[in-house]
Amino acid sequence: MKPTDLVGATPGPPFTITFDGRRLDALPGQSIAAVLWAAGILSWRITRGGGRPRGAFCGIGQCHDCLATVNGRPNRRACLVTARPGDTVTTQEGNGHAGFDE
Ligand code: FES
């Protein structure tokens, strides 16, 4: 049974995004973090100090562990950014230099 069956949800048609060149299925309304988790991807950032892997931690926009580069823009919080058809997500190395805007 899928999660959508449990809650009786009727999401719109699926679409695809890419993560480091890999095509992933997404549903309307899913955050980028949710799409990555659903594909079994738990890490999409490498820390500047030590090169340690990071992914989502709080899931509510507070910890900034989930930063990813989305469509060429670094420092997007994957737990807050809604996936859109054709999005290109890439692993972010370090913390980038752009401001937090989402
Ligand atoms: S998981 Fe904490 S800000 Fe996204």
TrEMBL record:
Pfam families in the cross-refs: Fer2_4
Presence of keyword Oxidoreductase: yes
Gene Ontology molecular-function annotations: iron-sulfur cluster binding; oxidoreductase activity
Protein biosynthesis as UniProt keyword: no
Superkingdom: Bacteria
Keywords: Oxidoreductase
UniProt-recorded name of the protein: Proline dehydrogenase
Organism, as annotated: Streptomyces venezuelae
